[in-house]
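User: I'm writing a tutorial on reading structure tokens. Could you give me a worked example: one chain, its sequence, then its tokens, then a sentence or two explaining what the tokens reveal?
Assistant: Sure. Here is the example chain.
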Amino acid sequence: MVNKFFDCLNTRSTTEHIRKRNEFLADYTSLDDSRFDWLQNVFIAYFEDWYKRVQERQGAFTSDDRGKMFISHQTYRGMKITVNSLIEVVRFLLPEGCEFVLSEKFCQDPLEEYFGHQRARGWLSDNPTLQSFGYNDHNCKETIIAHPW
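And here are its predicted structure tokens:
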């Protein structure tokens, strides 16, 4: 299930799903894509059911014990936010004229890499000025290459 979830989030080509025979890698072209139903009613429902079963489990379990029987609440919440955000973004973009949506483009890795370069260039400064940030952005070759835009 998690592999299919990642496939839904990493669509990167209009043809990869054909080559790999994996419909979860297809680009998004429809407002009622079947993956939306799967993400909400199978994937997220699985975790909701898991959480409910942990809470209802018989036994003298502390809240800490029950917490160890489930994924972290931050991870659970993040997955729900990610699923709902993906669906909403695709449903927003398609009527606005996009022929298709590639979900990989929403990946935060390039942003993390970009700001990582900024932190590395800033050395000991946790709060760079706008001027030093601009200087680092303009003069750091790796940062310019890492730009997600």
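What the tokens reveal: The chain has two domains: 1-105, 108-145. Residues 142-149 have pLDDT under 50 and may be disordered.
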